Amino acid sequence: MNSQQENLLQGKVALVTGAGRGIGRSIALALAAAGAKVVVNDLGVSLDGDATGETPADSVVKEIQELGGQALADTHSVADFAQAQAMIDGACQHFGRLDIVVNNAGNLRDVIFHRMSEEEFDAVILVHLKGTFNISRAAAPKFKEQGSGAFIHMTSTSGLIGNFGQANYCAAKLGIVGLSKAIALDMQRFGVRSNAIAPFAWTRMVSSIPDETPEQKRRVEGLKKLIPEKIAPFVVALASDSAKDISGQVFGVRNNEIYLFSQPRPVRTAHTSEGWTPESIIERVFPMFENDFYPLHRSGDVFTWDPV
């Protein structure tokens, strides 16, 4: 390990949810390489939430320890408020403090909207959005008390831009952006920051995408070029004290590209001194705004170039 890299997070304690595989694993390893003590949380379940009998959290802990780092395995569920509290309490009891929370745990239930069941919608909201709230809410008093802390949440271009067959996932991931901004605003005075990252990577989550048609095959081949380990350096940098003044932002990482995303602001206005009627809105406002309406893009329509 590079000595400068080892010192970047020296003395910090980090929690990474969903850290047994993919992006979460690479983030946990990178945080440890930067000097942080890491709580590796993973339920060890399949994409749809079924138990697999595996203990991926233990495997990642072993990897960190073999590299000379300190780590603790955790198998609590982010989807349960009490278990989230137990996760945070366990981290603080074991390592004495908590400085960084990376909300990475996720699941998928991809179904086209008019066929999506309530269970399929609720299951994804529960893990992604409610899970992010549960963990963040449990950590917030600890961060407030010590006057510092960094929340890093995983959003997605599926939520920021759109995607087919993912109404549950899109809603959850855009909800996380709003939650991150609210945390940033509410906790700014306590020295606590909150940011969101849209990671581009080939993981178990996206490996479930169908590849039956030629178009789908091309899309999948492009996604396979996206390397999970490329997300980790940005997470380490954002978690460091060098980023202590960065909060309420939405970033993206796509291999060697880093993005700062825009946030909703008015792009056109229409005003009348007489007040609007439905008829005058139809006659004047819709035509005025038409050129600035956003097309129904999905993520792949916006990010059309090969990852570098």
Describe the structure.
The chain has a single domain (3-263), classed as NAD(P)-binding Rossmann-like Domain (Rossmann fold). It has twelve helices and eight strands. It has helices at 3-7, 22-33, 56-66, 81-95, 118-146, 157-160, 167-187, 204-207, 214-223, 232-239, 278-289, 299-302; strands at 13-16, 37-41, 71-74, 100-103, 149-154, 192-200, 250-254, 257-260. The mean pLDDT is 92.
**Radius of gyration, whole Å:** 21 Å
- Strand count: 8
Give a short account of the largest sheet.
Answer: 8 strands, mixed
CATH class: Alpha Beta
Cα distance, first to last residue? 25 Å
Stretches where pLDDT is under 50 for at least 5 consecutive residues are: none
* Class based on secondary structure composition and strand pairing: alpha/beta
Number of helices: 12
CATH level 4 superfamily: NAD(P)-binding Rossmann-like Domain
Return the domain count. Answer: 1
Strand percentage, roughly? 5-15%
Global mean pLDDT = 92
Spatial strand arrangement across the major sheet: 3-2-1-4-5-6-7-8
Bulk shape? globular
CATH architecture: 3-Layer(aba) Sandwich
Helices and strands, in N-to-C order?
HEHEHEHEHEHHEHHHEEHH
User: Fraction of residues in helices?
Assistant: 40-55%
Q: Per CATH, what is the topology?
A: Rossmann fold
Give a short overview.
The chain is an alpha/beta fold. It is built from twelve helices and eight strands.
